[in-house]
Amino acid sequence: MPTLPLRAFDSGLPRSGTWIGYPLLTDLDGDQRADMIVSNREEDGLHVYYSSTEPRWELRVQGIQRDLGYGSAVVRDVNGDGRSDLVFAAHLDGVRVYTQTEAREWQLVTQREPQAQFCPELQLDLTLCDLDGDPHADLAGIGQFQGGLQLWRGRGDGTFELQTKVNLPDCGSMGRDVEAGDIDGDGREDLLLACERGLKVLLRRTVADQPETVCFVDASEGLPKPSIGNILYSAALVRLTHDGPVHVACAGLADPARRTAHHTFGVWQRDASTGAWSLVSAPLAANSTAPSGPDHHADHRALAVADLDRDGDADLVLATIGQGVVVWRGDGTGRFTAAGKLEGLTGKNRVSIGDVDGDGWLDIAATIPASKDDPERGGVRVYVNTQGLWP
Predict the structure, then answer these.
(1) What does pTM read for this prediction?
(2) Parallel, antiparallel, or unpaired: how do β-strands 277-279 and 336-341 relate?
C-alpha cells in the first residue's frame, strides 16, 4: 500500500516515550488551530501542546501534576469563563478537572466530594454529554477495571456530581470507549460503548413516574458481541454523508481461536421500524484478490472518522496491526477505498483528527506506544493534510 505524502508537523513533540494514551486534537485557545492533549504511561504523564504559526508545538503544563500516568481527556468550558478546560481520566489517580487560565496555565478544581466519592473507580474513557438539558457539560465514563458505565452531572463551576439514580442496561464492569450523540434522532443524547459486553447502543428514555432517574435502554440488536470480553477498542458515531442519518462503527481485535466469529471493524445502520442494526460497510469480497474495503476480521487498534478530502462523505483513519495506519476514503454508501498509509506507524497506534494549522483541512495525530524497557521506539507524530492530496 502506498504511503501518503503528508507533511510532518513534529517540531517540539517527543520522539521517544511510552505514549499509550489516546491523543486529542482540539482548539484550546480559540485561534482556529487544533492543540493537542496526550499522555504517557511511565514518564511524566499528561502533556498539553499548543500549536503555533512558527510552526512548532509549545508545551504548557504549569499546574498539572506530573505523575498521573496516561488516560483519556475531554475539553469543554466547565466553569463558564469562556475558556476551554480539561477533564482527564488519570490511570494512576482517577478523574481530575483542570481549568485553563488566561495565561495558559492550569488550575486543579477541588471537587465538593472527596475524590473517592466523586469518581469511585478508574475510568478508561470519558465523553461529554447532556444528561439534563441545562447548559452545563455532563460526563459519561467507562470503568477501567470495575464500575462499568458511570454518569456525572456538571454543576457549572467545574465540579461534577456522580449520578446514583440511574437505570442502565448491563454493559459489564469495564470498557474501552464511550461516545455521546443523538443516535435515534429524538433530540436527546444517547451513548455508544465499546465495552465488556460488545458494541452497545444505549438510547436515552424518560420514565414518567421516575423523573429524577437517568434512564437508558439497550438498542444493540445486530451489533458485535464477541465471546471474549473487552476486545473492541474503538467506537464511533458516523454520518456517511454530511446530512445523513447517524450510523455506528467500531474497531477491535479478533478472537484468536475463531477469527471470523465477529466483525472487528464495521459500520452499521439502524432500522427505525425494528430497531435492529445491519452491516452497511463492504467486507472483503469472497474469492477476490482486490479488497473492497477494510478487513472486517483483522486486528484493529484505533478508529477515527472525519471528512478528510472535503467531498461531503465520511472517511476513516484505521489503525490495523501489521498493516499500519491507513486512510480510507468513503463514498457515502458505506464503501471505503484505501488512499494510503501514514509513514512510520505499525498499527498499534492511537489517532486523533483536527486542523492543526488552521487551513481548513483536517490533519492527523498519532501516538507511538513503547514499552518501559525500550521507550526510544515511542513518540508522537502529526501528519498535515492538504488539498493537493485528493484528486
Answers:
(1) 0.95
(2) unpaired
Kindly report whether the peptide bond that precedes residue 14 is cis, defined as omega within 30 degrees of 0.
Answer: no
Residue type, 157: D
3-state helix/strand/coil string of the chain: CCECCCEECCCCCCCCCCCCCCCEEECCCCCCCCEEEEECCCCCCEEEEEECCCCCEEECCCCCCCCCCCEEEEEECCCCCCCCEEEEEECCCEEEEEEECCCCCEEECCCCCCHHHHCCCCEEEEEEECCCCCCCCEEEEEECCCCCEEEEEECCCCCEEECCCEECCCCCCCEEEEEEECCCCCCCCEEEEEECCEEEEEEEECCCCCCCCEEEEECCCCCCCCCCCCCEEEEEEEECECCCCEEEEEEECCECCECCCCCCEEEEEECCCCCCEEECCCCCCCCCCCCCCCCCCCCEEEEEEECCCCCCECEEEEEECCCEEEEEEECCCCCEEEEEECCCCCCCCEEEEECCCCCCCCEEEEEECCCCCCHHHCEEEEEECCHHHCC
Q: How many alpha carbons fall within 13 Å on the CB side of residue 81? A: 12
Joined grid coordinates for residue 76: 469543554
- Integer-rounded Cα Rg, in Å, for the chain is 20
| pLDDT tens per residue across span 270-306 | 999 999 999 999 765 556 555 569 999 999 999 999 9
pLDDT tens digit sequence for 73-96: 999 999 999 999 999 999 988 899
Residue type, 247: H
CB atoms within 10 A of CB 59: 13
Buried residues in 143-172 as b, exposed as e (16+ CB within 10 A): bbeebbbbbbbbbeebbbbbbeeeebbebb
Contact 366, 380 (CB under 8 A): yes
